[in-house]
Amino acid sequence: MLGNNNEANQQINRMQAATNNADRNRWRKLGGKNRNFAALIALIIICGIWTVAAHVVAKPFIFPYFEDVVKEVIYSLSDMYVLRNLGITMRRVMTGALYAFIIGLPLGMIMGYSPKILRALSPFMNSLRQVPIMAWVPLAIVWFGIGDGPTIFLIAFSGVFTIILNTISGVQDISKDFYNAARSMGANTLNIIKDIVLPGSLPGVMTGVRLAIGLGWMSVI
């Protein structure tokens, strides 16, 4: 028993040290000598090439001038009609992404944690996510009528599989040492899911949510 406790304590210490090192590395990337000035320089170069190339082509309808685009963006941000419609679109996208999160998170957690459930549900998930999103448009209109319903359904449907897949990946990336340490300390399945699976899979979950919101914008378009 004493040997098991010592081994569990060693595993916990190793996990804590690895977590602290990872946090410090992520913090360093936010500032100091690792600031990404290259991206800013690349953006300035792209804008310069755009400006020169547009004036060389001299056909604004085909290749608009950079300065004209900037003016229109500034004007649009002050136009209440544009802002109102942007708010409507944002509401639809965020609502659809929320539904995708509510459905996708528990499914991804269960499928990532249990290989048996993963094998049982994978054929259905893979079959559904292969169907083009536009094929669901007629059914969405029949089911939800005209209005926000079909749009929100399509946004949720396009994002739910992304959240499921990234959540599964996040759960499966958790080190087995965490599970072994928790079980050696007497943790039950509910505690393991609450204290290990949920926090450990957050990077994958956040990636899935981000991609789901991006797919939501594409669905609106």
UniProtKB/TrEMBL annotation:
Topology in membrane: Multi-pass membrane protein
Q: Which UniProt keywords apply?
A: Cell membrane, Membrane, Transmembrane, Transmembrane helix, Transport
Q: Known Pfam families for this protein? A: BPD_transp_1
Give every ABC transmembrane type-1 domain span: 86-221
On the tree of life, the source organism's domain of life is: Bacteria
Q: Which GO terms describe its biological process?
A: transmembrane transport
Q: Where in the cell is it found?
A: Cell membrane
One term under GO cellular component: plasma membrane
What PROSITE patterns is this protein classified in? ABC_TM1 (PS50928)
Q: Which residues cross the membrane?
A: 37-58, 96-115, 127-146, 152-171
Q: Which family does it belong to?
A: Belongs to the binding-protein-dependent transport system permease family.
- What is the name listed in the Swiss-Prot or TrEMBL entry for this protein? ABC transporter permease subunit
Task: List the taxonomic lineage.
Answer: Bacteria, Bacillati, Bacillota, Clostridia, Lachnospirales
